[in-house]
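S2.1 Query sequence (DUF5329 domain-containing protein)
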Amino acid sequence: MRTVLTSLVLFLLAPVATGAPLPPASRAEVDALLTRLQSSGCEFNRNGSWYAGADARAHLLKKLDYLEGKDLVKTAEQFIEQGASGSSMSGKPYLVRCAGKAPVESAQWLKAELQAVRSARAASSPR
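Output structure tokens follow.
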């Protein structure tokens, strides 16, 4: 019994593993992506329901927090693939629907936006 109690105490006192946040450059890219999604006027489909950009941003930030806590993401691409491309509950892909256009998978939409973010940053940086 004493061994069990000792093991339990050691388990409870053991430091909780916490992940690291995204590196600053990657976090800036993810923030830019989520800002673009929120301000795009597009809708975000998650498990069969459509949500406004602000709701999509809030949901994806929760997923980012989870992934960072598990130390599972270091780049914007990893965030897209592991958190922003589909439901971890149902396995269904997320979709983005913009006015007048057919819905596309969120991974495709976010990767295109990431390229636009990077192109804009490269064009504005001093040479």
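Residues 2-16 have pLDDT under 50 and may be disordered. The two ends are 69 Å apart (CA to CA).
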